[in-house]
Amino acid sequence: MGYTCYLLLTALLCFSLMAKGEAADPTAPIRLRLLTEPLPPLSYLEGEKATGYAVELVEHLKARLNEGANIEVLPWARAYSVASQLPNILLFSTALRDSRRSQFDFVGPIATARIKVYKLATDTDIPTSLDAAAEYGSLGVYRGSPSERILKKSGVKNVEVSSYPLQSLRQLLAGRVRYWCQADLAVSMLLSQAGTTEFAITPLFELERVELYLAFSRGTPALTVQQWHQALADFQEEGGFAELYERWFNMPVENTQSHILWHLTPED
After folding, report:
1. 30-110+211-261 falls under which CATH superfamily?
2. pLDDT digit string, tens, across residues 38-76
3. Selection from 83, 158, 86 nearest residue 117 by Cα
4. From 99, 104, 246, 262, which residue has the greatest number of CB atoms within 10 Å?
5. pTM
């Protein structure tokens, strides 16, 4: 009996030492939390399953890296709040801007979007600037979007902010806003989800060109960021990235050379 207990204690001690050794290993994989927003066709839910271009891309990179975490689809404001406060968060697809450079390490770009202002096709007024559009009526955006940032920066006051991009589109279709500001990559599928077609709206003018990235929250190990970048670079070099992009957007990818933009510190 005493010898058996001795063997059990020895085995437990060895297991404990091994576990401590693994925890101290700087190359051990870090479990990430993967967050995205409902913005089709980049990312959205079909039933309870996340899908979309960016979701497929991240799922592919996950497989290369043996990352087991599930992708969570949350409202952008909530996802961004979580990623701004905690380490080991991958937030996608994230627009690159100066205000975020101190909070995230960016890998990409993974897509290029153009922010445009749209009107109903039946609307006969054709403003050519934000100021002119704001004089005609309100502009719909969703909370935390590049469109909202652009309008705030431009000083436009006549803005209606919704929680989701589809909600903003429905406001346009119902006449509750006069214009809609949205990234072009998402427009076709949002129209489909709203039960209409591209003939229902007309683009007026472009506000900004935006590069979208994988954003890793501050505190995520540099090695983890580098591993995800290498997986993306390999996928691009093999041609799978361009094929995925063209399948989802029916247009050629503009940039197939990824890079890392490390977060800036106050000294930078």
Report:
1. Periplasmic binding protein-like II (3.40.190.10)
2. 988 999 999 999 999 999 999 999 999 999 999 999 999
3. 158
4. 104
5. 0.77
